[in-house]
Amino acid sequence: MSYENVNSTLGADFRLASRPPAAPRVTARLNALLPSFLARYGLVLAFLALWQISSTQGWVNPAVFPPLHIIVAALWDSLASGALIDDIAISLQRSGIAFAAAVAIGIPLGLVMGQAKIVEQALDPLLQFFRQTSALALYPVFILLLGLGETSKVFVIFWATLFPILLATIGGVKEVDGKLVEMARTYGAGRLTIFRRVILPASVPAIFVGLRLSATTALLLLIAAEMIGANKGIGFQVMNAQYNFQIPLMFAAILLLALLGLIANAVLVLLQKKLCRWSQPNA
Amino acid sequence: MSLAPAAIRGEVTIRHLSKSYTLDGRPLPVLDNINLKIRSGESLAIVGASGSGKTTLLRILAGLEDADGGEVLIDGKAVSGVGAERAVIFQEPRLLPWLTVLENVAFGLDTRGVSREEAKARARRYVQLVGLQSFENAYPRQLSGGMAQRVGIARALAVQPEILLLDEPLGALDAMTKIGMQQELTRIWRDEDVTTILVTHDLEEAIYLADRILILPREKNAAPRLIEIDLPRPRDRSAPEFVRHREELLTLFGLH
Predict the structure, then answer these.
(1) DSSP-assigned letters across all residues of B209-227
(2) pLDDT tens column, A184-212
(3) Domains defined along chain B, listed by start
(4) CB distance B97–A186 less than 8 Å?
């Protein structure tokens, strides 16, 4: 569906660009929307157009960079035939479980660590050490400990997504304006009330920064994990298609990953808008 | 009545109050043996150069800091820590940005366990008192500095304290807004039965608002001074008595 949109807007853009005053009634509205649309998506459209033209014109090798319509067709075929559905499901499951676990552990732990100096001081050096150690470098260790199955894949994603959430939450709690806490104190608020009514809501925007960062990391690690010792998943399909020189399918899987990333980010942004209406400039 | 005298509301007694901070390992006295009785319903202004301890005194009265020695009695009872009979208005509005104006004003009622319905009704009344009824559902970032401070004032008044403690509440506002707010505070205090203690560095504001002005010296061996301002309200800033008080204060600070 989304690629159809992309294609039709792409076409519309071309038509408008070549003869703008073609449809006078529609143009009035389009003229109002077009500048902001172009400012936001103009470069993406230009990139797609360049890809399509260079591939069909033979400026690049079309066997390595197939034209967009062939990639889109490959994606459509594999989705319609159900060939990729299983891969999508398993990939979503892996990253979903890992992300959920990172949220379930990272946010509460971050809330505690942000408030309790002693806990933070004790754990911070360890955290910094782990954070600086690439999760991918630790993947062999996880495989050694947990086997080559699902557990090690989920765990490596969990490991990599935990830190952005944890650190963002700690940062959010620590940045809460002490003056607001003091204000709450003068109205008789106890520790729990201060936590619930001041510290928690004040940390939400920072937590969302961590969540969005983690969602991206989850997909990144998912692919890496699926490239090693997997026989299913989108990451596996990218590798497998390349081995078998099914280049359109390879790009189709990559496109799918990009779309998943965009969807995950959009969902989080929507959720953030709902929860943080107060911090939106135009709420 | 033959029983104990009817409960006094909002009387503050300060006895032998002292406080010092530690600076480079040496004690730095901030308040030294302050004694003062603030009458019920009175408005007292505290002025003094920076470093005179006026804010520290207010924070001790608010229960946000502990004194090293001496005690504070409210309605005859020694107090420590914060209490429901006191509300503080800070220099910054200190509104919770995720709550609407109405919810912010209701905050102090919520934390004190007033039912949701009653808190809302009471908050609405005080939002109206400070003239922000059309902004009830606005968020703090949509308000100007003066409006935000009004919300802070409404929040403090909504808990119906006996004593209102104000720490340079208008210090961050521009001159025009400030004068408007001073007039508004006079009107509000006339209607609300509350003792007010105001820390300010604005001598004119002190004369305009206060019944008495406490002047804290910077040198700790000098005694604090008290000046009575016996002028009818609303006060005329250009009246000869007003100007005379201002000159008196300026002289005390060595500025005239």
Answers:
(1) H-SEEEEE-SSTTSPPEEE
(2) 999 999 999 999 999 999 999 999 999 99
(3) 12-85+161-252 (3.40.50.300)
(4) no
- Angstroms from A186 CA to nearest CA on chain B: 6
* Residue A230's pLDDT band (cuts 50, 70, 90): confident
Q: Which domains does chain A have, with CATH numbers?
A: 2-65 (no CATH), 85-279 (1.10.3720.10)
Radius of gyration from C-alpha coordinates of chain A: 24
Minimum distance, in Å, between the CA of residue B203 and any CA atom of chain A:
26
Task: Give the separation between CA B247 and CA B256, rounded to whole angstroms.
Answer: 7
Residue A186 has its nearest CB partner, among B82, B99, B110, at B82
CA gap B121, B106 in Å, rounded: 9
Which residues in B lie closer than 8 A to residue A204 (C-beta atoms)?
98
Q: Which of B62, B86, B98 sits opposite A278 (nearest CB)?
A: B98
CA A164 – CA A98 distance, rounded (Å): 13
Residue that has been written with the tokens 């604005």 in this structure: B202
Q: In this predicted structure, what is the pLDDT of residue A23?
A: 57
- The Cα of A104 is separated from the nearest Cα of chain B by a number of Å equal to 24
- pLDDT-derived band at A128, boundaries 50, 70, 90: confident
pTM of the entire structure? 0.81
- The answer to whether B81 contacts chain A (CB < 8 Å) is no
Residue B10 near residue B195 (C-beta atoms within 8 A) = yes
- Residue B226 confidence (pLDDT) above 80: yes
End-to-end Cα distance, chain B: 51
ipTM of the complex: 0.90
Cβ <8 Å between A193 and B111: yes
